[in-house]
Inverse folding.
């Protein structure tokens, strides 16, 4: 993991006006991975969109952590199924 | 300009309390939020409508105006303008306004003109919003996706020049960070998601980075062997046909397939299937020769 790809979570929390404890809970539930460097928490920029999505679920939609975990798994399945559908449509094109 | 009944949008009546509005909004937002409905344009439209309804009905001042003027909002606008001209005392709702992807602003004009676009429902505190993500489609022919090339596209009035790497797939979505809607109150810009639609009008079929092509081979070449020239995406290629080649024989041409996405210089394979053509309209002489051949059988 390169340091330049890391985003400081204290800055993220200030910007989004959220508690760091929420991010800690997400990590404890295995929904995101965070890294500690010199007593500060960071998140890889690849996970930023995912984290922002969880923030919206929790603060805007009032969905609790268990709900977020369930939704996260279901969305992974939806995305996998959509990818598979696209792949199958492309494969079908060979026989047209 | 369409008048939208915000109470109807949220499934409420006019006597709904602030708590009812909040609960109704939350319930519908959980149903239609774009994060929960990937690639669902209808859900996005519904979400924008309920968001708009919530922006108005959850704010006591806005709700009061809405209740007061109802569908005669044009008069409300004139009234507000007159009031502003008289007092010159600011008090505008301001805000950057929401923008609605390729279809322009999806919030009703009513909301825009009365309240000046988006903005925060919580007064006294500037809430930062990340800009909206935009989605668009780029249509290419198979041959266009064969080479890396630049293309300009216009998204919400802005022209963007992007590089499309060779090997992009039909249905593939790429993200252009920061080219979505502008952030509100200092929030970051949204992203632009480009979905590729690749049409294939050629005889060459594609699956991933492998290509498949059926070529006709005349019977004489198939029986006696010889050389044929075929057209590929990479130009003409000469192929040696072995004697006694059977119909449906497949030949794999390594590295003559489609470029591997973001792996410059790497290509898939081209699989050629031979379709042996039996001659037609034989002359008398040819028929006699085939008869001779038949006699040699067994």
């Amino acid at each position: 993991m390169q340091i330049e790809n890391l985003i400081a979570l204290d800055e993220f929390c200030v910007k989004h006006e959220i508690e760091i404890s929420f991010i800690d809970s997400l990590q404890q539930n295995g929904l995101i991975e965070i890294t500690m460097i010199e007593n500060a928490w960071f998140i890889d920029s690849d996970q930023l969109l995912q984290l922002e999505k969880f923030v919206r679920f929790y603060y805007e939609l009032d969905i609790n952590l268990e709900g977020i975990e369930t939704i996260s798994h279901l969305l992974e399945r939806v995305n996998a199924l959509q990818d598979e559908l696209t792949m199958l449509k492309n494969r079908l094109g060979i026989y047209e | 300009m369409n008048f939208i009944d915000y109470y109807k949008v949220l499934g409420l009546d006019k006597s709904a309390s602030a708590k009812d509005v909040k609960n109704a909004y939350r319930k519908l937002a959980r149903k239609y939020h774009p994060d929960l409905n990937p690639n669902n344009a209808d859900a996005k439209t519904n979400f924008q409508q309920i968001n708009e309804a919530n922006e108005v009905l959850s704010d006591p001042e806005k709700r009061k105006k809405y209740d007061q003027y109802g569908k005669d909002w044009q008069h409300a606008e004139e009234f507000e303008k007159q009031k502003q001209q008289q007092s010159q005392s600011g008090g505008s709702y301001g805000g950057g306004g929401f923008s609605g992807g390729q279809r322009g602003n999806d919030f009703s004009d009513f909301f825009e003109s009365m309240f000046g676009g988006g903005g925060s429902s919580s007064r006294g505190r500037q809430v930062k919003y990340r800009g909206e993500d935009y989605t668009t489609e780029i249509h290419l022919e198979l041959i266009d996706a064969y080479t890396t090339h630049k293309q300009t596209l216009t998204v919400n009035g802005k022209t963007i020049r992007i590089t499309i790497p060779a090997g992009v797939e039909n249905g593939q979505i790429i993200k252009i960070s920061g080219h979505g809607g502008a952030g509100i109150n200092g929030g970051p810009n949204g992203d632009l998601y480009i979905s590729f639609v690749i049409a294939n009008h050629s005889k060459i079929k594609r699956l991933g980075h492998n290509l498949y092509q059926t070529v006709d081979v005349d019977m004489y070449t198939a029986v006696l062997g010889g050389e044929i020239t075929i057209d590929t995406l990479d130009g003409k290629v000469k192929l040696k046909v072995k004697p006694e080649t059977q119909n449906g024989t497949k030949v794999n041409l390594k590295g003559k397939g489609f470029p591997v996405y973001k792996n410059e210089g790497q290509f898939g394979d081209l699989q050629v299937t031979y379709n042996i053509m039996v001659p037609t309209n034989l002359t008398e002489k040819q028929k006699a020769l085939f008869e001779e051949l038949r006699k040699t059988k067994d």
Observations:
- The mean pLDDT of chain A is 88.
